[in-house]
Amino acid sequence: MGKGLTMIMQPPLYIEIIGNKALPKIVFLHGFLGSGRDWLPLAEMLTSHYCCVLVDLPGHGSATLSASDEHHAYFMATVEALATVIQPISPEPCRLVGYSMGGRVALALMLTHPELFHQAVIVSASPGLPTEEERAKRRAGDEGIARKIERNFPDFLEAWYQQPLFSTLKNHPLFQEIERKRAINNPESLAAALRLLGTGQQPSFWDALSKCAVPTLFIAGEKDERYVAIARQMVKLAPHATLSVVPNCGHTLHIENKESFV
Predict the structure, then answer these.
(1) Are 182 and 158 in contact (CB under 8 A)?
(2) In terms of CB atoms within 10 Å, which of 34, 176, 186, 205 comes out highest?
């Protein structure tokens, strides 16, 4: 390699395919702390019509990371790795669903590789921060969170779900089960994922939305006011976009009202 160049390791991805591979495909991307299997209850409801592709993003589930993987260009390297994996799984354009962190990755993926997708559903997500100053500030904040994850993961989890955007989830009957699943994550791997895939590492895709060729449904929970506002902005910019605001739900609307989401 040329002097001064840094090699980016291939981002790890783990794929689980649910259903008949002959059916149209839906690719699901999960949020921070989750895994592809977060989508399993929904996938099981869809298997009569779709083949569901559940992805573990880097640092989550079976796609583990370490600090040695960290590099500033990793976000887009992950997007390119996904495009490489999806094309042979679904030679015909498929559907894409992404939530929160996975929604940010999904937005980047569909905007850079629109030929891969027939439709997209983006849940509780944004196209990034518009300025480098904002991104740098976010990276600094995420570094502090990553250190908390490494230092005391149980305390981090408790604090994470105290955030207002999870207030409706905490009152949901499934919350204790979700919290139990999150607690078995690998802290080092999650901290690396936050440093690599956090909003501060994501290029801004606000300007690219006006050129979006993929029909897109943006979804946000009614009580998640920040992401409702972001979704409204994105719908105004994207020419083939629609918006759905799910009543009585917050950030995790696909869990809080699974039937409505499906």
Answers:
(1) no
(2) 34
Rounded Cα–Cα distance for residues 65 and 11 (Å): 8
Give the H/E segment covering residue 253: helix 253-256
Query: Half-sphere exposure (CA, 13 Å, Cβ side) for 136?
Result: 3
C-alpha dihedral (167, 168, 169, 170), degrees to nearest 10: 50
* pLDDT tens readout for residues 28-85: 999 999 999 999 999 999 999 999 999 999 999 999 887 666 566 899 999 999 999 9
The secondary structure element, H or E, covering residue 89 is helix 74-89
- List the structure tokens of 102: 């996975």
The rounded distance, in Å, linking the Cα atoms of 15 and 59 is 14
Q: Which residue has the tokens 């690719």?
A: 27
Nearest Cα to 24, choosing from 95, 121, 88?
95
Where does residue 93 rank: exposed (0-12), middle (13-18), buried (19+ CB within 10 A)? middle
Furthest CA-CA distance within the chain: 55
Asked whether the whole model's pTM tops 0.90, one would answer yes
Give residue-wise pLDDT tens across range 125-142. Answer: 999 999 999 999 999 999
Tokens of 40: 């399993």
Task: Say what the pLDDT of residue 66 is.
Answer: 73
